[in-house]
């Protein structure tokens, strides 16, 4: 038995099929099947019920799955402690939300490449809910999302907070001074889609002011929302740092909301029971980047 066989076994379980595991491991389905058969021969038991189309674990398979996650995670920790950090190789699948992509993702990529020059990066930008689902499905190694999910299987580490504010085009003629939910309801609201973390935050803000949240337009793209807002189509909740240039140029203006919108917590997610060198590499790089941002502020 070897680590490669255990890693392959975990991939089959997490991906749900031998074919999907082969694709994730960049190998053939026959190789995946051979590794699993070698494991079954080693333990002398069947790990999968092959009477179904989906890779269904047997009772012994479930036992091995729980213990394999711990073993593989411990070996990754051992590698991280003993090996040269600069020698970290492979493909890191990193997921980030739009606000990170538009602000400090370039600095994070630069920090990771400086620390680990042999590391390959595969970056995906999506909504927090989508990234969390892909992490659970083993399609990502690490994700940085908005908010903090309640999931014991995930390691959640706060990595900072982003300020959001209601913004509008000066051409819209939005009211000056403190704007309440009732005031803002008089304008078309361009909101993030219901799957977004920010949609719930917007809805809670209106509810606190005793006003029903009725967006005129919903969209899952922050860039599209900002474009619509800058063209005077309505008001939108946008990240302050991301659109600071547009505000300075007079394309957007920040509305003074009462009550003020709370900051959005950003969280680094990874599997709690499968700590890897990738997770530590991203955690350390994020810490360095965020420290640099605070120093420059």
What are the main properties of this structure?
D-Maltodextrin-Binding Protein, domain 2; 297 residues; 3 domains; five-stranded mixed sheet; Arc Repressor Mutant, subunit A; alpha/beta
Can you describe what's shown?
The protein has 297 residues and is an alpha/beta fold. It folds into three domains: 3-82, Winged helix-like DNA-binding domain superfamily/Winged helix DNA-binding domain (Arc Repressor Mutant, subunit A, Orthogonal Bundle); 85-160 and 265-296, Periplasmic binding protein-like II (D-Maltodextrin-Binding Protein, domain 2, 3-Layer(aba) Sandwich); 164-262, D-Maltodextrin-Binding Protein, domain 2 (3-Layer(aba) Sandwich). Helix content is 45%, strand content 21%. The chain is built from twelve helices and 14 strands. Strands 4-3-5-14-6 form a five-stranded mixed sheet, sandwiched between helices. A hairpin with a 6-residue loop joins strand 1 and strand 2 (56-57). It is elongated. The N and C termini lie far apart (53 Å).
CATH topology of the largest domain: D-Maltodextrin-Binding Protein, domain 2
Count of strand segments: 14
Q: Report the end-to-end length measured between terminal Cα atoms.
A: 53 Å
Q: What is the total number of structural domains? A: 3
- The CATH class of the largest domain turns out to be Alpha Beta
Report the average pLDDT across residues. 87
Superfamily at the CATH H level of the largest domain?
Periplasmic binding protein-like II
Largest sheet: 5 strands, mixed
Uncertain segments of ≥5 residues (pLDDT<50)? Answer: none
Number of helices: 12
